[in-house]
Design brief:
By secondary structure, the chain is α+β, with helices and mostly antiparallel strands. The protein is about 20% helix and about 20% strand. The protein is elongated and about 60 Å long. Bound molecules: nicotinamide-adenine-dinucleotide and zinc ion (ZN) (2 copies).
């Protein structure tokens, strides 16, 4: 995604400096907002000098306050994609992106109905990701990562809500949010491609893993998981 904004500019785009520090603690460093952030800018990094250690910022939408330098340090620890997430309430500012490696998302149509959705056919999503070398955004840059159980096959009912979920999953894929590189909680293997907080149904006609049908709450659950990554219906209007 083209240009990479300066971290201080990202902070100042979504937080406004407040003149009187509220009598509260900073949720990042746990110190009082009236005392300075301990994340002093490194002397060599002249850009960061534009935010003083005493600066308290207020998020423009949710209104939560914290040290601006604490938020800057948190931003610099992440994917630095130009977006911020309020650490208090998780409101997302800008477009959150993830660390999913390169791969392919393919969509197919299946005539057969899913258990619990007798009145429509099925959408099949096939995710393929080949093994590779971890980038700077991954836990061990320069080391290889593995890919287990790919291609992974996933299923949605081919009805109105299922198609909406599909469109939002395509947005999440483009934003690199479906998978990440980390340690598999199923196998314990480190440096491998794993699901990233957006649940998929990987069994079509059985439910041996608990990731199958029927599940009357699935579409609503995955819509709220998508929303907590900043992927909502608004993304489809733009
Ligand atoms: P993980 O085990 O770290 O779990 C991450 C998330 O994925 C969790 O929220 C979990 O609920 C969900 N999840 C776990 N198993 C799932 C499944 N079968 N279908 C859909 N969601 C599932 O994530 P992971 O390492 O990506 O493993 C998830 C699944 O991937 C495994 O259960 C297995 O089906 C498959 N896998 C296959 C191999 C293989 O060699 N064939 C190896 C590793 C994983
Ligand atoms: Zn702080
Ligand atoms: Zn907030």
């Amino acid at each position: 995604r083209g240009s990479c904004p300066r971290p201080e500019d990202v902070i100042q785009r979504y937080m406004e400096a407040v003149s009187a520090a509220p009598d509260e603690d900073c949720i990042i460093c746990m110190d009082q907002l009236s005392s300075p952030s301990s994340y002093a800018a490194p002397a060599a990094d002249e850009g960061a000098q534009s935010i003083p250690a005493s600066a308290v910022g207020k998020f423009v939408k949710c209104g939560h306050t914290l040290h601006m330098l604490c938020m800057l340090a948190m931003y610099n620890n992440g994917t630095k994609d130009g977006s911020l997430q309020c650490p208090s309430c998780k409101t997302i500012y800008g477009e959150k992106t993830g660390t999913q490696p390169k791969g392919k998302m393919e969509i197919y149509s299946i005539g057969q109905a899913l258990p619990g959705h007798p009145d429509c056919g099925t959408i099949q999503i096939v995710y393929s990701i080949p093994p590779g070398i971890q980038g700077p955004e991954h836990p061990n840059p320069g080391q290889p990562f593995s890919c287990r159980g790919f291609p992974r096959f996933c299923f949605l009912p081919d009805n109105h809500k299922g198609r909406k979920v599909l469109e939002l999953l395509k947005v999440a894929w483009m934003r690199r949010l479906i998978f990440t590189v980390g340690t598999s909680s199923t196998t314990g293997e480190p440096d491998t491609v794993v699901w990233n907080n957006i649940h998929h149904k990987t069994e079509m006609m059985s439910n041996l893993s608990g990731h199958g049908y029927p599940d009357p709450n699935y579409l609503d659950n995955v819509l709220s998981e998508l929303a907590s990554q900043g992927v909502t219906e608004d993304c489809l209007k733009a």
